[in-house]
Amino acid sequence: MIDIHNHTTFSDGRNTVEQVIQSAVEAGLQVIGLSDHFDPYVCQEVCLQPEQINGYLKKIRSFDGKLPIKVLAGLELGLQSEGILLPGEEMDYYIYSVHTVPGRPDLKSLEDPWEIYLKEAILAVDLIDRPGFFGHLDFLRRHIPFGRPPKPGPLIDRLLMKLVSNHVGLEVNTSGWMYGLGDPSPQSWVIERYLELGGNLLTIGSDSHRALQVGKYSVQAVSLLRGIGVKEVFYCENGSYVPFRILEEE
């Protein structure tokens, strides 16, 4: 159906824009979004540079109306409370990801980084002023000992309430299944809590870095969302949220 979190050779992906889009077509997706890294807080060798943005956008826009799939131009923006780097060009959407924390560049080395990470994310979300989705909220499970997830509590609630009040969506990132965690990122209880707190702007992304991963586990994501009563997900086009109805099971 939909996958708006995909990386290409413009950042740390293994395949070109053309190859990623072709893989989406072959997978039967209806919406594909390219979202390469644009992040001043991580290694620049894996990120788009400001001078590349125009060429990146032109490449993606060159497919407009030429394929049986909607192709969206996005970026995965690195976010910290210290600031956010915005591109010189307007994108359809942004995936806002907190990968690091000021003064603690390697959260992956901590056994339990959740308090530090969530407090930073709460502050950072206040910088968001353009439509998009908070990316892979509990991605650190992939890296820390025993894959410990965050626990329900006031910090998670504060972050989710910030997303709701700032009109920022929440990504259902399917890479948790791909990495063998058994569920998406964030876990389903976080998604349900976001809905309970008034959120509704959910989207689906694979976080693919190879063309063969595009749309991976989207069937599981749709099944999970349908099971908790979600009837539509969203994408952004030209800076506006667009609903996309989840199909009923046949």
Give the topology, please:
Elements: E1 2-3, H1 17-26, E2 31-38, H2 53-61, E3 70-80, E4 83-84, E5 93-97, H3 114-125, E6 132-134, H4 154-165, E7 169-173, H5 175-178, H6 188-196, E8 202-205, H7 218-227, E9 232-237, E10 240-245
Parallel strand pairs: 1-2, 2-3, 3-5, 5-6, 6-7, 7-8
Antiparallel strand pairs: 3-4, 9-10
Summary of the model, kept short:
This protein has helices spanning 17-26, 53-61, 114-125, 154-165, 175-178, 188-196, 218-227; strands at residues 2-3, 31-38, 70-80, 83-84, 93-97, 132-134, 169-173, 202-205, 232-237, 240-245. It is an alpha/beta fold and 250 residues long.
Describe the structure.
With about 250 residues, this protein is an alpha/beta fold. It is built from seven helices and ten strands. It has helices at about 15-25, 55-60, 115-125, 155-165, 175-180, 190-195, 220-225, and strands at about 1-5, 30-40, 70-80, 85, 95, 130-135, 170-175, 200-205, 230-235, 240-245. Strands 1, 2, 3, 4, 5, 6, 7 and 8 form an eight-stranded mixed β-sheet that branches. It is globular.
Largest sheet properties: 8 strands, mixed
What is the overall number of helices? 7
Average pLDDT score: 93
Rg is 17 Å
Helix content: 25-40%
Write down the overall geometry.
Answer: globular
Beta-strand percent range:
15-25%
Quaternary organisation of the protein chains: single chain
SS class: alpha/beta
Give me the strand/helix succession: EHEHEEEHEHEHHEHEE
Span of the ends, CA to CA:
15 Å
| Uncertain residue segments | none
Number of strands: 10
